[in-house]
Write a structure and sequence with these properties.
- The protein is of the alpha+beta class.
- The chain has one domain.
- Helices cover 34% and strands 19% of the residues.
- Strands 3-6-5 form a 3-stranded antiparallel sheet.
- Strand 1 and strand 2 form a beta hairpin.
- The longest helix has 16 residues.
- The chain is extended and about 60 Å long.
């Protein structure tokens, strides 16, 4: 079972990790979606803040990162830290577990990987598995680490200053939202 202390969790047991990772996500989604004013809720605003820090991760992975390492700011896999940033995970650090996509060849009909296709009732045999295109067939737990869990070469400073004329961002937002079929309500600053 995931151990919790205030706002962090640890998914230590490999044989139960998958269930332990899914359970708090589902509960959080249920809690978040529980009201009409969900977008105005403090919990949703908190999630938006977290999501903005981890732009490369899905909302589920963002939640898992925040749950396990509330102070996380830059997260990457073990090899990414070594190969791209010349940094190393400190000895004794515990991994932050996220869901990584499994991309492999998949049957054009049942969309299973070759291994699962063999065991399924699908009778597709028009092209051999070697010629199938790749696609998402599932997810697996994968370990990542926050920059605070690493040591080595300093990370480059991010240029966070925006320059130039942004125009009218409200208008740009509503035009984009209309194109995507999303409803947007601009809230006055005093609200």
């Amino acid at each position: 079972m995931a151990t919790t202390s205030d706002s962090s969790a640890s998914f230590d047991q490999a044989d139960t990790r998958s269930d332990e990772m899914n359970s708090p996500i589902e509960q959080w989604i249920d809690d978040l979606g529980g009201g009409d004013d969900v977008q105005a809720s403090a919990e949703f605003q908190k999630w938006l803040d977290i999501q903005s820090r981890f732009h490369d991760y899905s909302y589920r992975n963002t939640f898992l990162i925040k749950r396990q390492c509330p102070e996380a700011s830059r997260v990457a896999g073990y090899r990414t830290w070594q190969e791209e940033f010349d940094r190393h995970v400190k000895e004794g650090e515990s991994a932050i577990w996220i869901w990584a996509p499994i991309i492999t060849k998949q049957c054009p009909e049942c969309e299973n990987s070759p291994r699962y296709h063999e065991d399924s009732d699908c009778e597709y045999d028009e092209t051999p598995p070697e010629e199938w295109s790749e696609g998402l067939v599932g997810f697996k737990p994968a370990p990542v680490f926050d920059v605070s869990q690493t040591e080595g070469e300093p990370l480059p400073d991010l240029d966070t200053e925006a320059t130039g004329d942004a125009g009218n961002p409200d208008e740009q937002l509503t035009v984009t939202a209309d194109e995507l079929g999303v409803t947007v309500r601009i809230v006055p600053a005093e609200e």
